[in-house]
Structure formats: C-alpha cells, structure tokens
Design goal:
single chain; about 280 residues; mainly alpha
Amino acid sequence: MPEDSRKPLWLYPNLLSLDAPLVAIAWLHVFAKTWRLGYHPWEAYVSLGLAVWIIYVADRLLDVSMAGALPGSLEERHRFHLRHRRFFTFGVLAALVAAVAIVITRMPVAIYMNLLLGGVLVAGFFGLSMLSSQDPNETPVMKNSIAGITFAFGTAMTAHLYRYEYGLDDLLTSREFVCFAVLCVLNICAIDLWEHAARSSDIEVRARDELTLTMPLVLLGIAALVFAVQDMSSRPFFYAILTGAALLYLLNRRRAMFSLRALRVLADAALIVPVLVFLAASAG
C-alpha cells in the first residue's frame, strides 16, 4: 500500500501545509471583530491565506534541500514535501502570482508600507533558517521567535490595514498584537521543545524543557486575564488568548500521552479552539 494512503486524514492539513493558513484566517476574523472593522473584504482573507501557505511550503522545501540526507532521516511533513516537490513548487508559483495580483488590484495602498516590515521579517526568518544549526539537540529559539512574530504581524496587519485612522506604530504597540505574537512564538517553540524532550532520556533535560514552556505560558495567561478585566470591549479577544495559553499548558503537561505527529496537530488545535471561545464570548 502506498505510504500516503496509510496516513490518517487528520494529519493531511499539516502535511499539505494548510494548518497555518487556516489558523491565520481564523485569527484574522478575530482581529477584524475585535477592532470593529466596518469593512473587511474577502481579498484580505484570501491574500493572507495564500501568503502564509507560500511561506510555509517554501520553508519546508528549503529544509529538504538543505538536509542533504536520505528521505528516511527527514521528518514526516518534510518527506511528504520531498515526494511531492513538483506539486508544491507549482503550487507556490501559482499562489504567488495570485497573491501579487490581489495585492496590486484589490488591497489598500497602505499595505505597501506594511509589506516593507513584513518583508524584512520574512527575510530574517529565511536567513535564520539557512544559518541555523541542523543539530537536532539544539532548539532554534531565535528562528522560532521570528517565525511567530512574522505570523502574528501578517495576521494582525491584514486587519489593521482597514483601521485607516491608525498607523503602524499603533499596531505594533497594541496589546492584542503583542499577546497574539507571544502565543504564536510559544506555539512554535512548544513543538521543538516537545521533540527535543522526546529524544532525550535525561529526566533533568525533560523537566527543563517543560519548565521553559510553562513559565511564559503562565505569564501570558495572567496578562490576558488582567487585560480582559481592564478592557471590556476586547474581553473576548483576551479570553481567546487565555484559552490558547491554557491548552498549550495542558498539552505540555500531558505530552507523553500523544505521539509527536499528534502533538503537532493538537498544537494547531490549541490555536483554533480559542477562536470558537472568542465567537461564543462575543455572542454572549
């Protein structure tokens, strides 16, 4: 039986790099509702989804090209991209053409100023990807931090574009953006820390990896709770942040119950479930 046909259906969004675009689109809706945008068209969601998919696929193809190893030494999602490299390469080119066309013909002019910073972040991410060590015993904290901030910036910025009376500095200093960026960084770091702990038989190393994630998650949860109390208008947003931090905390404590590929999917779920909490809190 071909290897792809033996994979569970719930794993395919991760293998196809669709998980991150879905999370970005869902949280774009959260930002749009939180900031009470009177006008937020379809092209904002489509362009963001395409951009995130392009970046994630390009990163995995880059990892494959830099590995210089047999497919069996690569992670599952990388092996999938290697086997279907032609499909993903064509898809990236087609998505890039579509995204550029949408940005040029449909998006507000203000996007070009924001894209400058976004381009710097993306370039920094790929630069760190090429320079970072391939040692599996090292956790690429800087790369993960840039990745999380870039993801959060692209998502929040695509909503912020339609807040015409606010500038870029208002976005970067907003509590909503900062909290979401921290949540994204911790989400990405969690996966590497879980993999690092799984490879180690040292109890102290495992405990250190768990604590490395636990402390910032607790601090983020406390901050979200404080902001929810202080700002009634944005309370559902910070409830969502609190939910995401709590879910990652629970996964971190119970990670031994799940396989690594299941943890990857559950980490995505930890960013999707808060959107449902936001919708329920907003409707209440």
